[in-house]
Design brief:
Layout lengths: L1 E9 L3 H19 L2 E6 L4 H5 L7 H9 L2 E6 L14 H12 L3 E7 L12 H4 L3 E7 L11 E3 L4 E3 L6 H16 L4 E6 L5 H15 L5 E6 H10 L6 E4 L1 H15 L8 E3 L5 E2 L18 H13 L4 H16 L18 H14 L6
Parallel strand pairs: 1-2, 1-3, 3-12, 5-10, 8-9, 8-10
Antiparallel strand pairs: 4-5, 4-11, 6-7, 11-12
Helix pairs in contact: 1-10, 1-12, 6-7, 8-9, 10-11, 11-12
The structure holds 3-isopropylmalic acid (IPM) and manganese (II) ion.
Length: 362
């Protein structure tokens, strides 16, 4: 197989975790006999520092032309002020829209051996395995009007959802659930918000077309509590853009570290793949960042963008095998346990396991 993958390393730990994912993709190409053409392009703070806009035209064109896009992270404290146009995060929002990737899949599961690594009680989180399906190109992130008024004395955003936008993301959630444990929890704030009442109505209609999938509705505040206290009850969690952003960071705490979580943003051609964690400037350049979120995002890219299922499975098995061998980056070390390995050591171990085709647990 031949494929072109646009790499967008971005800011903070973005470049190091993107390089880790690239290394693993090269190991996949070697073992399975594929030819991946991978080219890097500036985005976010990295693009601003080079004097351009956060999403340069050249980067947008390269992403639109590629078979898939792998992004590290955007966010840079040097640009943490001023209007949206000059912020690194704007690049990501523009790119999601340009690519038409309205469905953000964020799987979160507790890997065996990591049960006691998170913020919550091990017996409550052991075995948790959920998929957040987050609407990604609508809601309050994009709603108009938005802006600053009264000379900075007030500011406003608009939460808006249309029926078709809700319908298509709900379809993704029900289809995903049908291939898992057939349960959808739809998250809203229907006791307060009109957008949420429409959300609930449309999700219920879509649910009626999927009689084999059980649908329940939760208010977002209750869902946040249940995710912390009984995460095992969740299979697919369907949410709008803002609520899904918040709940997915909480899911990171449930599984042990936000550094583990991958994501796939699909809906357009190819798609955009990125770890859920951000740029973590304090960790950048020290080789301590966990590369697993980015490497697992590369596995999702193989599966969703290239249809390379055996390859994706091989990467996920390699991650499981490295963890089963006791390897832990700093974020995964709990008191008195193993000493931490560097991000690059973790990457080498995972890439070697992909190359070997080592069985799970080896
Ligand atoms: C995420 C991030 C982004 C978001 C930011 C960087 C714009 O937090 O992908 O979860 O809010 O969507
Ligand atoms: Mn987020």
């Amino acid at each position: 197989m031949r494929a072109t993958i646009a790499l967008l390393p971005g800011d903070g730990i973005g470049p190091e975790v993107t390089a880790a994912a690239e290394q693993v993709l090269r190991a996949v190409a070697g073992r399975f006999g594929h030819a991946f053409t991978m080219t890097s392009h500036p985005v976010g703070g990295a693009a601003l520092r080079a004097g351009g806009p956060p999403l340069p035209d050249e980067t947008r064109e390269a992403c639109l032309a590629a078979d898939a896009v792998l992004l590290g992270a955007v966010g840079d404290p040097a640009f943490d002020r001023g209007s949206s146009e000059g912020r690194p995060e704007t690049a990501l929002l523009q790119l999601r829209r340009a690519l038409g990737v309205f469905a953000n899949l964020r799987p979160a599961r507790v890997w065996p051996g990591l049960e006691d690594g998170g913020a919550f009680k091990p017996d409550r989180v052991a075995g948790a395995d959920l998929l957040i399906v987050r609407e990604l190109t609508g809601g309050i992130y994009y709603g108009e009007p938005r802006g600053v008024a009264d000379d900075g004395r007030s500011a406003f955003n608009t939460m808006r959802y249309s029926r078709p936008e809700i319908e298509r993301i709900a379809e993704v959630a029900f289809e995903s659930a049908a291939a898992r444990r057939s349960r959808v929890t739809s998250v809203d704030k229907a006791n307060v918000l009109e957008t949420s009442r429409l959300w609930r109505e449309v999700v219920t209609e879509v649910g009626a077309r999927h009689p084999d999938v059980t649908l329940e509705h939760q208010y977002v505040d209750a869902c946040a509590l249940l995710l912390a206290t009984s995460p095992k009850q969740f299979d697919v969690v369907l949410s709008g853009n803002l609520f899904g952003d918040i709940l997915s960071d909480e899911a990171g705490a449930v599984v042990g570290s936000l550094g583990l979580l991958p994501s796939a943003s699909i809906g357009g051609r190819g798609g955009l793949y990125e770890p859920v964690h951000g740029s973590a400037p304090a960790l950048a350049g020290r080789d301590v960042a966990n590369p697993i979120g980015a490497i697992a995002s590369a596995a999702m890219l193989l599966r969703h963008a290239l249809g390379a299922h055996a390859e994706a499975d091989a990467v996920e098995r390699a991650i499981g095998s490295a963890l089963a061998a006791g390897l832990r980056t700093a974020d995964l070390v709990t008191d008195g346990q193993a000493t931490a390995v560097s991000g690059s050591a973790m990457t080498r171990e995972i890439a070697a396991r992909v190359g070997d085709g080592a069985p799970p647990g080896a």
